[in-house]
Specification:
CATH class of the largest domain: Alpha Beta
Strand order of the largest sheet: 3-2-1-4-5-6
Number of strands: 9
CATH superfamily of the largest domain: NAD(P)-binding Rossmann-like Domain
Shape: elongated
Structural class: alpha/beta
CATH architecture of the largest domain: 3-Layer(aba) Sandwich
Strand content: 5-15%
Order of helices and strands: EHEHEEHEHEEEHEHHHHH
Number of helices: 10
Number of domains: 2
Largest sheet: 6 strands, parallel
Helix content: 40-55%
């Protein structure tokens, strides 16, 4: 049986880390890489992350193609790649918003004879680019597949096998719309709030010197150092769910404001206590 060939479109943090994580693994596929930046491809080859740099068109020679570019660009890439995919091959992605990508992927697959599988590795950092790629990024982390009734079971297993080799310890399956609802609260909202908090401080007329910021501000706002281009795409692609999440957050923030204004010590204790118990439960799970 011929060795499987995997093509990665986008060799940034996620794509680069995936390539590095497969490097030297027993039974790992041959990895080809494609990126809009030629220097990135050269770095990936030099690091031994990919066996070959290729063009987007040459990805058609791969058995599995994984799209690892920002979500709005992912939709466009899937639209271009679809007509080039060979019968029996698999096209998948690593985006953190799934409904639109899965819709476009299945539309493209229906016109061809290949399979599409939506995917999302639950891993990342505020850093970006191949220079930030880490072969252990996915170790012990979860990977979510977002199948629909039309998704081929064998194609799902092929995609899950790749991410398991990359280090993912927990493989989950979730409806695309449920995925976007869940991650609007546990990922997209925290990023939006972190950006808003830093923006609030940055626009204060009193010009608060950030050199005096305590650990709380730095810890809470770490993710505001994430790639603005990537998060602009995520927010626009999942805007309906994120707007609902922001509305729910504003209601809870307004409740806190009312309790502070009223000097409601018992109410504040209950509010903070519930938040602490929820957070502590997350850390112990």
């Amino acid at each position: 049986m011929a060795r499987e060939r995997v093509g990665i479109l986008g060799l940034g943090l996620i794509g680069g880390s995936l390539a590095l994580s497969l490097k030297g693994k027993r039974g790992a596929p041959e990895v080809w890489g494609c990126d809009s930046r030629k220097e990135t491809v050269r770095q990936a080859i030099s690091a031994g992350a990919i066996a070959r740099g290729c063009t987007e068109a040459q990805l058609s020679a791969c058995d599995v193609v994984i799209v690892c570019v920002p979500v709005l660009r992912s939709v466009e890439a899937i639209r271009r790649l679809g007509p080039r995919m060979r019968p029996g091959t698999v096209l998948t992605d690593a985006g953190s918003v799934k409904s639109g990508i899965v819709r476009e992927g299945e539309r493209s697959a229906a016109r061809g004879a290949f399979f599409f599988v939506g995917g999302h590795p639950i891993a990342g950092t505020e850093a970006s680019g191949f220079s930030a790629a880490d072969p252990d990024l996915f170790r012990g982390r979860s990977f979510v597949v977002t199948p629909t009734p039309r998704t081929d079971a064998g194609a799902i297993r092929r995609v899950e096998r790749i991410w398991k080799r990359a280090g993912s310890a927990v493989l989950l399956r979730m409806d695309p719309k449920v995925h976007d609802h869940v991650f609007a609260y546990v990922s997209h909202l925290p990023h939006a709030v972190a950006y808003a908090l830093v923006h609030s401080v940055a626009t204060l007329p009193s010009r608060v010197p950030l050199g005096y910021s305590a650990g709380g501000f730095r810890d809470f706002t770490r993710i505001a150092s994430s790639n603005p281009e990537m998060w602009k795409d995520i927010v626009l692609e999942n805007r309906v769910e994120i707007l609902r999440a922001l509305s729910h957050y504003r209601r809870n923030l307004a409740l806190l404001e009312r309790r502070i204004a009223a000097g409601d010590a018992d109410g504040l204790l209950e509010y903070f206590g519930r938040a602490k118990r929820t957070r502590d439960g997350l850390l112990s799970s």
